[in-house]
Write a structure and sequence with these properties.
Strand content: 15-25%
CATH architecture of the largest domain: 3-Layer(aba) Sandwich
Structural class: alpha/beta
Number of strands: 27
CATH topology of the largest domain: Rossmann fold
Largest sheet: 7 strands, mixed
Strand order of the largest sheet: 5-4-17-16-15-6-7
Number of domains: 4
CATH class of the largest domain: Alpha Beta
Number of helices: 26
Distance between the termini: 53 Å
């Protein structure tokens, strides 16, 4: 630190999206004025995305809420009164105790969005409270692939970029624009510069698609069928690793029989991808060693969620690329308590577990301790099978980010008690009874990366204090102790010590370290087998067989498509994709940050020139996109890189600059158009069909615009 300038540079790791990038935080007189990449950090090597570079603008944003609030008028009116933390926490505790006394703890639901790394605290509070009704975005985002891998091979395999794969198949993931879970885009860029073979599966022409050796432009939602086509080639041409199959695979013969049901001519008809291109991609992937698959949530937000995940892991395994250097690896975390010790419902008796709102449905989702949130909305609105009377939401904006947004808004408007912890008064927070001001990653001590499976732990220490903001970890700790729950430490540091205890270290000992990494060991199955009931890699899933699900993966036609509902095409002629990532936003976050919003001021709908011409739409025009659920508007981006039969809209849009309550939550949000009918869910996980719907488009008139 320089005494003359009062400046210092503090090493940390960013959490502006899914995190994992090392950063240098520049502080002058106690104020952060710049954030840049840390060149010595192993996951990003100094690179940084726009979200991380601009994050200090979020920390000091004038609209950020810095003190607890309680609602001072009717719900959604936007009238608030500042209160103390004691009043806010005591109000929540008293309301929760009232619900428990009258209805039981199951009538309380806890909600969280995409990870801010508080899963262990969040799940512990819910478990000790006694509610089986915990919802996150995980059932259609990331945790679905965790669940699929648990029942297939015991853990989630991660691409080993450190050992230079020679072929990478990027499937439904635009990693160079967003850091996807364990990954940063810099690692893929680095191996691409070395001349790897690149296969990209994406309905849209992206930068990665344009750089690919093979680009497979599939019909949205048909990923599982395409994976079957590749497996068919690999098996037919005997490109699989016969030694691995013979020694370590369970259900090979049954799997081969299922794959035979998907010859390339059938797969071509389903996916729109020419058979010869499928054959070319399968050969390239199977014959280039080592190889890995990097996939994203796009394939997990359909009725084929888990089977598509299973099939991608299967492709890695049968080609001999599982847990080898440069392949897809089971990385081991540093010694400590794992996330599973907090997230499974272990802390309450079977009679409480039996009150899971979804009943016997979605057993894989229940196994990992989650509930598709549709069941919460139904329990609020119908009181069946019993009422939900209170909801606590942290790090989430479900009015914008969950399917069938109108129903979400109605349910959260009618629940008896709602608390929300966040940085800003979002459309969801506008409906709260109590608002808790949350701290960002720059304002909290925590073991970053604890949730993920890349084998790292990133100690992150508090740098600044903003107003009276508290971290999610502090909030859960204080609420748990006020509820009288046993098992909480006297403060967050004590809870972090509990997480680190099996490794023989304390938070004080690791807080200043840049990172910890678990031991890297390859081919662990050769000594230990796999953590499955059979001890093998299960192409034929014995857990699914026990649950009454099909033990083998399959492809189901998307519930709302030109194939399943051809009559719909008369009114809704286009396949609608929702949710392509922006390099400057993270789901519904960051639209108030000046640098980022200047880069991306408006929501964008992408369409082919033929579609635009047909409807009289020019570049930059405001366009209505309509589905049977509702209508929104976004600005036109006309691109030949999308199929003429497909339209693509961005997700997560609301308008913080609109100061009226709601901030335009229903103007441009993709989830006004999406459905959340459980009859169309992935059977084992409960994933919604967010990515493949039907729509129509037409221009917004000058008067309406």
């Amino acid at each position: 630190m320089s005494e003359s300038t009062g400046e210092q540079i503090i090493k940390s790791n960013c959490r502006g999206c899914h995190g994992g990038c090392g950063v240098l935080v520049h502080v002058r007189d106690g104020v952060i004025f710049k954030i840049e990449g840390d060149p010595d950090f192993p996951t990003n090597h100094g690179s940084m995305c726009s979200k991380g570079l601009a994050f200090h603008q979020l920390v000091y944003h004038p609209d950020r809420v810095k003190y607890p609030l309680k609602r001072a008028g009717k719900r959604g009116e936007g009238r608030w009164q500042r209160i103390s933390w004691d009043e806010a926490l005591d109000t929540i505790v008293n309301r929760l105790k009232q619900v428990i006394e009258t209805y039981g703890p199951e009538s309380i639901a806890l909600g969280q969005g995409t990870s801010r790394e508080g899963e262990s605290f969040f799940a512990r509070f819910g478990n000790l409270l006694g509610t089986p009704n915990i919802f996150t975005a995980g059932h259609f985002c990331y945790l679905s692939r965790v669940g699929a891998s648990l029942v297939t091979c015991g853990n989630l395999p991660i691409s080993d970029y450190d050992n230079d794969p020679k072929c990478v198949m990027v499937w439904g993931n635009n990693i160079l624009w967003v850091n996807a879970d364990e990954y940063t885009g810099e690692n893929l860029s680095r191996v691409m510069a070395k001349g790897i073979k690149l296969i990209v599966i994406d309905p849209r022409l992206t930068y990665l698609s344009s750089r690919a050796d093979i680009w497979l432009q599939l019909r949205p939602g048909t990923d599982a069928a395409l994976a079957f086509g590749m497996a068919h080639v690999i098996i037919d041409e005997e490109l699989y690793d016969s030694e691995f199959v013979e020694k370590y695979v369970h259900g090979w013969d049954e799997f081969v029989e299922r794959v035979r049901e998907y010859p390339l001519d059938k797969v071509e008809e389903i996916t729109w991808v020419p058979a010869e291109k499928i054959r070319e991609a399968a050969r390239l992937f199977a014959q280039t060693k080592p190889a890995t698959i990097q996939w994203g949530v796009a394939i997990e937000q359909t009725i084929n969620c888990i089977d598509a995940d299973r099939l991608l892991i299967d492709l890695v395994a049968i080609t001999g690329n599982l847990d080898i250097p440069g392949g897809s690896v089971f990385f081991q975390p540093p010694k400590g308590r794992t996330i599973s010790q907090f997230t499974y419902h272990r802390e309450f008796p079977p009679e409480q577990r039996a009150k899971y709102l979804a009943g016997d449905a979605h057993k894989l989702c229940q196994m990992i301790g989650l509930l598709p949130e549709k069941y919460v909305w139904d329990a609020i609105l119908t009181s069946k099978p019993y009422p939900i009377k209170a909801i606590m939401i942290q790090a989430s904006n479900p009015v914008i980010t969950r399917p069938n947004a109108k129903e979400v808004y109605k349910a959260l408007s009618e629940v008896e008690f709602l608390s929300v912890a966040d940085f800003f008064l979002t459309p969801t927070a506008d409906l709260a009874d109590i608002f808790l001001p949350a701290a960002t990653w720059l304002e909290a001590d925590y073991t970053g990366g604890f949730f993920f499976r890349h084998g790292y732990l990133f100690p992150r220490r508090k740098i600044v204090q903003i107003g009276e903001c508290k971290s999610d970890f502090e909030i859960w700790n204080e609420l748990g102790r006020r509820m009288g729950q046993k098992g909480w430490g006297s403060n967050v540091e004590a809870d972090l010590d509990f997480i680190l205890e099996p490794g023989g270290v304390t938070w004080a000992q690791v807080r200043d370290k840049p990172y910890l990494r678990g031991e890297v060991v390859y081919r662990k199955h050769e000594k230990k087998g796999f953590s499955t009931p059979t001890g093998k890699f299960e192409l034929y899933c014995s857990t699914f067989e026990k649950w009454g699900y099909d033990p083998l993966p399959k492809y189901l036609e998307i519930p709302e498509s030109p194939v399943s509902k051809p009559e719909m095409t008369k009114e809704y002629p286009y396949i609608l994709i929702t949710g392509p990532r922006s390099p400057v936003f993270f789901h519904s976050e960051h639209r108030m940050i000046p640098w980022l919003r200047e880069c991306h001021p408006d929501p964008i709908v992408e369409m082919h020139p033929q579609a635009a011409e047909k409807h009289g739409i020019d570049e930059g025009d405001w366009v209505y996109i309509e589905s049977p659920r509702g209508r929104i508007k976004q600005r036109a981006n006309i691109s030949p890189g999308i199929d003429p039969r497909v339209v693509c809209i961005q997700h997560g849009w609301w308008f913080p600059e609109q100061k009226d309550p709601g901030h335009g939550w229903d103007q441009s949000s993709s989830n006004i158009l999406t459905d959340n009918d459980p009859d169309t869910y992935d059977i084992s996980m409960g994933a919604s069909n967010l990515r493949a719907l039907m729509c129509k488009i037409y221009p917004v008139t000058e008067e309406e615009a």
